[in-house]
Amino acid sequence: MEIIPAEAEAIQRAAQALLDGQTLSSVAAGMPPRERAGRALRPWRSSELRSLLISPRLAALSAYDLESAYTAARASRGDTAAAIFSSVVAPAIWPAILDETLWRDLVRKLCDPKRRITPGSAPAHLLSGLVSCGVAGCGAPLRVSTAQRPGQPKRQYYRCFSAGHSRRPMDVLEDIVIGRTLDVLENGLTPPPLEPDSTDTPDTTSELARLRDKLSRLAEQYAADDITDHQFTLATAKTRARIAALEATAKPVTMSPELREIALAPSPREMWPTLPLESRRAILRALWTIELQPYPVVGSDAGRLAFNAAKKDPAWGIQMVPTWQ
Ligand SMILES: [Zn+2]
To answer: Are 183 and 210 members of one domain?
Structure first.
């Protein structure tokens, strides 16, 4: 972002106002409209003002790899202010708009997680992106949108992100998914060991090597006419089946730590509401592949019947395929 000298004073005032406790949106609203060559004047957005103010350039500091350090810290909910400070490499040659100490205070204030209204780009809804549209050839993730019928309150829906094929009220879909998940967990989901240990033994490995070697020897024998078609087909089929069985048992079995924790909890049902959103999402992601079918099309009497029947059943069209079996 280029800093226009005429804006310097406005920036200094904005910084002071924020440090005095004004909100980002009110300070952004009080900024003079942005002037950019060839474009219409427009007011500052809070996010634009924030990006400008956390830039080390304002304090006449140059930074290295600021963008990626900041993005990484933000994605991991880490200390974004520290990430910004650590990317500062040297004093720059341009004049400072903000005093460095004041700028650092400001960055700490703007990066304070308690202040953050939208926590990064992390999904704010339990099932955003975790359910896919069941229409053949679509498969787009469902995201939350708000809809309102005349005379009725606004309602939030999960809706096919691509074309709106399938949608379901947010509370209905979440209740069904949570209900089935807790049923499964309460019934005792046996978690596999966190680290694959006894499954991938040297025995298995050497046996696999021997069988693969046998396959290539069979091919050589067949090429040299030492064995018949029938012998070759039979022997390779048997060997391949044995390899497949061994590979299946040797496959490392892992489970997400969040899922493991709740699976081993004395009462998954009591634990669930205490978990942060990200953990609940991790559990669902680890447990299920979820698809939502669109309601039947009302184009005929039969269509209307099917539609009405589907509408009566809250669980209609919600397909949850377990991934742990
Ligand atoms: Zn779709």
So the answer is: no
